[in-house]
Amino acid sequence: MSFIRQVWYHNLTQELAILNDQLFKFPVIAMDTEFPGFLRSTPRGAPEEHLYQDLKFNLNHLKILQPGLTLMDENEHVGLSWVFTFSDFDEQTDFSSPTSIQFLKNNKGFEFKKQKKDGIPSTEFRRAFLPIFSSNRITKWITFHGIYVLLIC
To answer: What is the reported pTM?
Structure first.
């Protein structure tokens, strides 16, 4: 088994079954995402209302590209990792930061045509992941930009 597993529409069911089985041994999930940048960034020390307005604007205008999940146990032993590539984002028509798009292409090897053609509709991911999410086997979530991650997904 590969340590980082790439998940597309064609192998979503198979990979979620593996993830579900692994939760018995590794009940902690660390989650990160790739998304097409920030449209609004909140300055440090800004009032909470400003933070909320910027957060709401970004959430309402951006589509997630990839959530990544890594399983661990309570002693921080790492299990498998998955990268789920969503198909919803259209580089030509959806909101994004041009700088972020270039970074993803140049530094991460992101292929937007393949993502559109072979990716997972986010609604299908939600439907398939919900039973795992609500299974009570996940004991802890660790996130980077967690407020964005949990609200977008």
So the answer is: 0.87
At 4, the amino acid letter reads I
Distance CA 115, CA 98 (A): 17
pLDDT, tens digit, 9 for 90 and up, residues 60-100:
899 999 999 999 999 999 999 999 999 999 999 999 999 99
Q: How many CB atoms lie within 10 A of CB 76?
A: 8
pLDDT of residue 69: 95
Tell me if 5 sits within 8 A of 80, measured CB to CB. yes
Pairing of strands 28-34, 140-143: parallel
In the chain, the percentage of residues whose pLDDT exceeds 70 is 93
**Full set of structural domains in the chain with CATH:** 4-152 (3.30.420.10)
Contact 20, 132 (CB under 8 A): yes
Q: Copy the structure tokens of residue 26.
A: 């590794």
Beta-strand relationship, 78-84 and 66-72 = antiparallel
pLDDT at 142: 87
By three-state DSSP, how is residue 4 classified?
Answer: strand
How far is it, in rounded angstroms, from Cα 132 to Cα 128? 8
Read off φ and ψ for residue 68, nearest 5 degrees: -120, 135
Q: Say how far apart CA 117 and CA 89 lie, in whole Å.
A: 11
